[in-house]
Write a structure and sequence with these properties.
Largest sheet: none
Order of helices and strands: HHH
Number of strands: 0
Helix content: over 70%
Number of domains: 1
Oligomer: single chain
Length: about 90
């Protein structure tokens, strides 16, 4: 059974990063505006960077850092902003 540390600091942030990537790509595909594509690229790059660093920390045994968690928080925030500015997500009354 995996340790609690690995689940809390590795698995949950990785799932959040994959969720941010999926949400961002879904919004960018539905509405191919320049702002949506730009935000989607930023979310994907930040999340992939964070996943790479998490892999190096937990699998390769690198020194722990808070940087991937900050990148995941930023990418989740950008995905939320992307969803918020999407006109299809916020239809006019």
């Amino acid at each position: 059974m995996p340790s609690t540390e690995w689940i809390v600091w590795g698995l949950l942030p990785a799932l959040a990063a994959f969720g941010a990537i999926a949400l961002s790509l879904q919004v960018a595909i539905r509405q191919a505006a320049i702002i949506q594509v730009g935000l989607s690229v930023a979310v994907v790059v930040l999340s992939l960077f964070a996943l790479l660093v998490l892999k190096r920390i937990f699998i390769d045994g690198a020194w722990p850092s808070a940087l991937p968690h900050l990148a995941i928080a930023a990418s989740c925030g950008l995905a939320g902003v992307q969803r918020w500015v999407s006109p299809r997500a916020n239809p006019a009354p």
